[in-house]
Amino acid sequence: MTAGTAEGNAYNGLRMAEVTLPSRAYWSDAEYQRDLDAIWYRNWIMACRVADLDQPLAYRVFKLGTQEILIIRDETGVLRAFHNTCRHRGSQLCSESEGRLKARLLTCPYHAWSYSLRGELVRVPSKSLPEGFDKADYPLYPVALSVWRGFVFVNLAENAQGSAADVFDSGSADLSNWPLENLVTGHAFRKVMNCNWKIFWENFNECLHCPGVHKSLSHLVPIYGRGLMARHDDPEWALHADNDAPEYSGGLRAGAETWSEDGCVHGPVFPGLTEAERATGQTYASHLPSMFIVGHVDYVRTVRLVPLGPEQTELVAKWLFLPEALTASGTDLENIVKFGIQVLEEDAAICEINQKGLHSLRHETGVLMPEEYELQRFHQWVRVQHAHMLTSTSADSAR
């Protein structure tokens, strides 16, 4: 669920029936490859936290589609990213998913070509070199890397533009009052969902499913129990414009402070939040196509998606806290984490049900209801991404 559009004096909902993406977009091998080429290989993708590479020579291998990206902290402390591919005959350089190099070189396990941690080819063990061979012509293939507030993003586009900070979804809230860079991981949860990655984003972008799927969450956030994400999702919002009860205005139920099983905070709260941010209960920022962040008063939750196939998606969620929260005697991580996992499990289960139904020979497209205005915006984003790839491909062919 996003934060919704900026509230003005307008109704958020769709005025006419809008068609969904075609069903084949969720299960076709060809459409999956199209998504990889147009979206996942051309956008900034969240790979890990800076803290995951906390010392020189530490590395991680991030897998995205058929691609493996090697993210490494060099001997000077600089983070760099390369394709995990030797320039000799294409061998994989690092076979482990993470670790720490024993030397300041990346050495191919096949024929021992060695590279500096800046990607330069520095050693070839052949007894002689071909005439005209220059090691400077064979550096590792670089991958664009961008750090945003403690998160590491990569972009596989050969001429990647801008940075990860430039492309947060327009409906995202400002998280500058949350100390994201200083937070530590209190819990991590991984799940492979049997659904297309777009199905999960669609589910995230509407709350029509909330009353039936998320009983506990709907009790905690009463407006979700009405199948709405924000006040202006209600076509009759003006009748309750002056009513600040949470079922109309959003926010948590009376007496609740955060997302947890009992609605109570269970550790130190963030000192820099405004009264409005404390009262909201959940503050969303989304970064298509790979992640969203939710700021609560006492922790931050991140969810990262990676497509594994047309009908499989990896979800990794992390609960981030102030360092002192993990050592404070009053912190009850289980109360917080169990509630979040319950919501994610409910989302995953209903997404898998959605996926199964899309194989009907008769179902070519669906239709969006007025409350699903964010789905329509997401679908349009997907269409634009595909169109941009076609334009770029045509331009390249014309050269």
Automatic annotation (TrEMBL):
Domain of life: Bacteria
Keyword Metal-binding included in the entry's annotation: yes
Keywords: 2Fe-2S, Dioxygenase, Iron, Iron-sulfur, Metal-binding, Oxidoreductase
GO molecular function terms attached to this record: 2 iron, 2 sulfur cluster binding; dioxygenase activity; iron ion binding
Pfam families noted in UniProt: Rieske (PF00355), Ring_hydroxyl_A (PF00848)
InterPro entries, sorted: Rieske_2Fe-2S, Rieske_2Fe-2S_sf, Ring_hydroxy_dOase_asu_C_dom, Rng_hydr_dOase-A
Residue ranges occupied by any Rieske domain in the UniProt entry: 45-154
Cited PROSITE patterns: RIESKE
Cofactor list: Fe cation
Entry protein name: Aromatic ring-hydroxylating dioxygenase subunit alpha
Naturally occurring in which organism (per UniProt): Mesorhizobium zhangyense
